[in-house]
Amino acid sequence: MTDRLDLLSGVSTSTAASGFDETALVSRAKAGDTTAFSELVKHYDRRVFRMAKQITQNDEDAEDVLQETFLKAYSHLDDFQGNSRFYTWLVRIAVNEALMKLRKRRSDRTVPLDDPIDTGEDELPREVAVWDENPEEKYSREELSEILEEAVQSLKPAYRTVFVLRDIEELSIEETAEALGLSISAVKSRLLRARLQLREKLTRQFKRKGDDAFGYL
Question: At 193, which CATH number?
């Protein structure tokens, strides 16, 4: 592809252009219109980077994932059949690239995305402890955001990925399942586990019994 570098020259300068038509842009890109593909890059680059950073926990790796995702998407446009949103297809490429980064770093014990997950009660968080004060009174919004981000990053990759796609990127359960190649029930199970683990971690931080940590974020 002769225009690969040109296609990615707009990365990190995303635009939310009015009248964005994903289907039309994909059709034009598949017909060889590099300008159309560049528009897709500009529309989705920040979302892909943010998701990649949530998974890899590293700016440099996230940048690499961003570049590789769009290069692979461009190289394999003919493989996109239009049975799902283009962004869902893009997410699947990005997730695979991000998880490859984690495996290469060997800094995080990964749980393969197709592994079954035990949902036995013995692994669920214990009863939460008492929080002495309202987190909103003790922490600024920025501090709360940092606390939540650290909690998300502490999740195992299989749980973190599902949580990021569903609760941060706001993909539907069905889109998340399609992007990750999982069943809907597996996505729901991992999402529940991620939310429960986050509640336990946040409860330890705020030390107050009976309140829902997510209610303050």
Answer: 1.10.10.10
